[in-house]
Amino acid sequence: xxxxxxxxxxxxxxxxxxxxxxxxxxxxxxxxxxxxxxxxxxxxxxxxxxxxxxxxxxxxxxxxxxxxxxxxxxxxxxxxxxxxxxxxxxxxxxxxxxxxxxxxxxxxxxxxxxxxxxxxxxxxxxxxxxxxxxxxxxxxxxxxxxxxxxxxxxxxxxxxxxxxxxxxxxxxxxxxxxxxxxxxxxxxxxxxxxxxxxxxxxxxxxxxxxxxxxxxxxxxxxxxxxxxx
Length: 229
Prior knowledge:
The protein has 229 residues and is an alpha/beta fold. Helices cover 45% and strands 14% of the residues. It has two domains: 2-24 and 101-226, HAD superfamily/HAD-like (Rossmann fold), CATH 3.40.50.1000; 25-95. One of its GO terms (cellular component) is cytosol. It holds the Pfam family Hydrolase.
């Protein structure tokens, strides 16, 4: 764990979902291949499935930007069909109970909740996906709100986090995430950023600008205990 300054206890902690709470690849990779199999069956896509690293490296982006990276030469209607199929196959995968949260996530969230910390999710994912992950893994009751770009039609996580803070009258939060979009959201809203350096999906400087880097989710408890009131 690396920290650049003394932290202050927040009114709430806001979490990204993919690569922060949820071990995304345990659900995403099978769904990703199913999407392209279906697109080929429907005559909307030809050729081989794009490399998995293109999808994993795009996590944290809005879906429309992900498909521009993964299949940049396809038309918009193919991208929107891919949206529908990805959600369908991910929800199916969740029901099969093969996906995973990162180690210590349920216990750490429960402990923070027990201490009266307000907890939220702010994700660039689709509404039913974000809520589905939280429901299936039985962490939904610990949160005061599950915010997604899919539900609120925000153009960036900066806007989504601002909306969340305004809705709940929050002035001092910790933004916890694994991507540059999380760092940007926290920074542009004037908040503390906790970078999660355990997923490994992003570039080397993905979390540049974070106030703290953690290598295990449970380290959040130590940070909270040591933070000034």
